[in-house]
Write a structure and sequence with these properties.
This protein is α+β, with helices and mostly antiparallel strands and 340 residues long. The protein has 14 helices and ten strands.
Amino acid sequence: MEDEDLPAHLCRLGLTRREAELYEALLASGPGGRRGEAEATGAEETGVEGTWPEGTEPEDLGPELTRLRRLGLVTVATADRRRHVPVEPTVALEYLAHSRAAEVRAAQQAAVNAYRGWRRSAGTQRTDDLVEVVTGDSIVEAIETIEAAAEREVLRFDSPPYHTHGAANPIEIENLRRGVEYRVVYARSAVQHAAYYAVNIQPSIAAGEQARILPTVPVKLTVFDRRLAIVSMSFVEAEANDSLLLVHPSSLLSALTGLFETSWRAALPMHLGDRVPPALSTVQRRIVELLATGVTDETIAELLGISRRTLSRQLEQLNSRAGSVTRFQMALHAARNGWI
């Protein structure tokens, strides 16, 4: 963060512009502190630099300094209360951030309530508050906005086609980095898509996504924090994937969440467990991941960018290590021994 951006950032956290400029001036003025206070507040500088004039209280510099003290961003440096200095700001800034987050949530709810009131006044049926239809150019923007706002958990059934045309998902990577849990059940058709596997599935698993696979998934679904779901069309339902449903808290949302949990328990894991032998090469580890998905050897070779001959050689080495003969026995050994 550049120094000149500090007041703007502090204003976003709830400080006024004068409070932010005063705090920045205190940081810039060094141990003396007095000059920065005077410059930021417009107060006339008197007395010895770095100290308060005799008989002058800090509050004389105005309410800005008083609030900075109350928030815990500055404190007096000496027993005679003549000099102010910044203090370690973590606790104060976290308080400001939480306060602003609460204000944003309240504003968000007020806007939602106002919108629902408008819809009721326009004669829209009550059930429309629970399910909305999004179409056309608004789809991708809606998906990205909702996913970026996830706080705790994202549950997903993943299968083609894709509104984002099978591109990478940097929002998921960022959410995983900040602690949002992802559990995804992939349809086999998603894993068989080599480009999608390379740019989306594998990077997400590497970043911490918990991934499992089924031959097919019952519906294209994503549930965010168990408070909102997106339901899209699959190839079976439409040739053109040009609409989606937003499902708000309701018995329908609970049923969709329950459907995911049931399918999650039945699905096979796609990522390695804690007991995979460390001696396996990177390619061998990726092969083990893909064995349980049920895709063909040809698909595995394509996904990994290797020849069929190289894949056969790697499978022979894995079978030798596991004491297995067939591909199925290899996958069974990996599952029983906690490799996946």
